[in-house]
Design brief:
With 122 residues, this protein is of the alpha+beta class. The protein has four helices and four strands. A four-stranded antiparallel β-sheet has the order 2-3-1-4. The longest helix is centred in the first third of the chain and has 10 residues. The radius of gyration is 15 Å and the shape is globular.
């Protein structure tokens, strides 16, 4: 039985909204310090979990993939003037936001991981 819904616009019960952000940064290490310092702010705005990925060949191309309580919460946060200023300070250029509906997910096998999952503010 497939977990796909007939209407891809309909939220999947029991799941979060997802956001994929692609952006270039001036300096990954500087961006990461700002990103980490905003963990409490992101959590209070409705971010539930996140993954940060970097391009294999250009460490300053960053992907932030996150789950949120709702798309509205995520959009309100990402479009806020406060966050625009934080992005400027972090050296972010031309972020691209994709607000996504989960259709299906699964695990075929556990890949070796980079280490333990971090709690916000760690």
């Amino acid at each position: 039985m497939s977990s796909l819904q007939e209407d891809p616009e309909a939220p999947v019960p029991g799941t979060a909204a997802h956001v994929l952000i692609l952006h270039a940064v001036a300096d990954y290490e500087a961006w990461k310090r700002v990103f980490d310092s905003a963990a409490t702010m992101r959590k209070e705005a409705g971010e539930l979990s996140y993954r940060v990925l970097r391009d294999r060949e250009d460490a300053n191309n960053v992907v932030h993939f996150s789950a949120w309580t709702t798309h509205d919460d995520a959009m309100r946060f990402f479009q806020s003037p406060e966050l625009e200023e934080i992005r400027r300070k972090a050296g972010v250029t031309a972020p691209t936001f994709h607000y996504l509906h989960l259709l299906e997910c699964g695990v075929l096998q556990q890949p070796p991981g980079p280490g333990p999952v971090k709690e916000p503010g760690e």
